Amino acid sequence: MASRWLDLRWALSVLCVLLMAETVSGARDSSTGAHISPQFPASGVNQTPVVDCRKVCGLNVSDRCDFIRTNPDCHSDGGYLDYLEGIFCHFPPNLLPLAVTLYVSWLLYLFLILGVTAAKFFCPNLSAISTTLKLSHNVAGVTFLAFGNGAPDIFSALVAFSDPHTAGLALGALFGAGVLVTTVVAGGITILHPFMAASRPFFRDIIFYMVAVFLTFIMLFRGRVTMAWALGYLGLYVFYVVTVILCTWIYRWQRRGSLVYSMPVTPEILSDSEEDRVSSNSNSYDYGDEYRPLFFYQETTAQILARALNPLDYMKWRRKSAYWKALKVFKLPVEFLLLLTVPVVDPDKDDRNWKRPLNCLHLVISPLVVVLTLQSGTYGVYEIGGLVPVWVVVVIAGTALASVTFFATSDSQPPRLHWLFAFLGFLTSALWINAAATEVVNILRSLGVVFRLSNTVLGLTLLAWGNSIGDAFSDFTLARQGYPRMAFSACFGGIIFNILVGVGLGCLLQISRSHTEVKLEPDGLLVWVLAGALGLSLVFSLVSVPLQCFQLSRVYGICLLLFYLNFLVVALLTEFGVIRLKST
C-alpha cells in the first residue's frame, strides 16, 4: 500500500492538466459566459445595478425574495440549484434555521461525493492512464497523483475564479488549505510518528511553495491577473516537475557511482521519499482467496452485471466496525451511481476490471452524463436544428456502439482497446467532481450571504477543511503504518500543485473566455492575514526543521498545531471586525 501511495504521490499533471483543461473549459465555457455578462456589462446597456447580496438580510422580509431574483450579485454562476432563492423565496423566515441545517447537511454530503469520486474512480483511472502511457513513477507522481489528490481543490478553484465575487473563495480555500496542511497535517504526522525528514526534498518543496505564495501575494496586491501572469504560474509548475525529475536522476546517478556499503532497506533510512519505493510484497496475501469457491461456474450476463454494480462487500462488512458501517451506508447511493456511470480500468487485475455488460452500459450512460453535466446540462438539452436534443443523439450513438461492443467481445477476455475506458472514466469522473464542486461553491456563497461572512473566511474554513480532510486522513494513516516521511513529503508536494495549477489554470481559462484580465476583489484585511499566516508558517518550518537537524519531534508538531489555532482565532477576529485597521 505504501508503495502505491508513493508512486501515486509522484505522478499526475502534464497530460492530466491538458485533459482537465479541455474538460473544464467545455464544462464551464457557456455557463460562465452566460453569467459573466451581469458582472461585466457592455457599455450603454441598461441593467439592474449590482448591490452586495449580503445586504439582503437587512431588508424587510417581504422584499428579500425580489431582491434575490433581481440583483445580479445574487445569481449563482452555474449549478443545478439556486440556493439563495430557496432560502429567501421558498422557506418562511421562521424556518431559516431548518434551511441552513439542510444546506449544511447537503454540503457535507457533497464533500463525501467529492471524496468517493476522487478516491475510487478518478485516481484509479489516472493511474491506469499513466500505466498505459508508460510514464515513469516520478513524472506520474508530480502530475497524475498530485492532480488526483488535489482534484476537489482544483475544481473548486476553477469554479470560483469564474466570477470575481467568488475569487476570494478560491484564494481563501487555497491559502486556508495551505495553512491547514503545513501545520495541522504536518504537525499531526510528527506527533503520531517522530522521524528524520529528507533534507533535499524538504528544501526543494518548501522553497517552491514559498515562491508560489509570494507570487500570489503580489497578484493580490495588483488586484488583477493577466495572461502572462497565469502562464507564469503554470510555467513555474512545469519547472518544478522538471526539477523533481532532474533531482531524482542526479541522485540515482550518484548512488550508482558510489561504493557505499549496503544498508538494510527500511522506510525511514531512504534518502528521498520520491525516489525510493517501499516494497509491499511481504504483505500481499489476498485474503479474498479464502472466500473463492472451489468449483467455478459460468456466470450469466445478469449475474455479472449485478455483481459489478454491487458496492458492498459482504465479507468485508462483517469484519468492519460500526463506524465504518454507518459511513458506508451513506456512501452506498453515491458508489452505486458512480459504478453505473463511471468505468474504472485496473491494470493490476488480470481482467483489468473488464465487466462486459456493465462496460457496454457505460458506453451509453457515461456520454449521457458528460453532456448533462457540461454547462450544468445546457449542452444536453440543446436541440439540433430545433428538433432533436443533443442527449437523444448521444443515447442513440452510445447504444449502437454498446451493441457492437457487446457482440464483438467476451466476458472472460478484455478487448484490445479496453484502455480507452480509462479515458472515458477520467472524463466522466472529472465532470462529476466539477458538478459537485460547483454546488459546494454555490452553497458556501449562500451561507456567506445568510451569515454575512466574506468568501475568504468561508474558503479558509469550510471549503479548505472539506477538501483537505481526505488527504489528512490518508497522510495520518501512512504515518501510523510507519511511513511518516512519505506522508510529510506529500504535505508540500500536493499543495504546490493546488496553488500553481489552481490559480494559473483557473485564471487562464477565464481569460481565454472573456479575453480580458481577471479582476480580484480581496475581502479587506482578512486575505492579507491569511497570506501572511501561510508565509509565516513556511518560514517557521524552513528555520526550525534544519535547527532540529531534520529530526522532527512531537514538540515541533505541537507548535504547528498551536500556530494554526492562533491563526484561526486571529482570522475570525478579523472577520468580525474585532481586529481592523485604523481609519486615518
From TrEMBL:
Its main location: mitochondrion. One of its GO terms (biological process) is intracellular calcium ion homeostasis. InterPro entries: CaCA_antiporter, NaCa_Exmemb, NCX_ion-bd_dom_sf. It is a multi-pass membrane protein. The keyword Cell membrane does not apply. Residues 1-26 form the signal peptide. It catalyses: 3 Li(+)(out) + Ca(2+)(in) = 3 Li(+)(in) + Ca(2+)(out); Ca(2+)(in) + 3 Na(+)(out) = Ca(2+)(out) + 3 Na(+)(in). GO terms for cellular component: mitochondrial inner membrane. Pfam families: Na_Ca_ex. The chain crosses the membrane at residues 103-123, 135-161, 167-190, 202-221, 227-251, 360-382, 388-407, 419-437, 443-465, 486-512, 524-543, 555-579. Keywords: Antiport, Calcium, Calcium transport, Glycoprotein, Ion transport, Lithium, Membrane, Mitochondrion, Mitochondrion inner membrane, Sensory transduction, Signal, Sodium, Sodium transport, Transmembrane, Transmembrane helix, Transport. It is found in: Mitochondrion inner membrane. Belongs to the Ca(2+):cation antiporter (CaCA) (TC 2.A.19) family. SLC24A subfamily. This is Mitochondrial sodium/calcium exchanger protein.
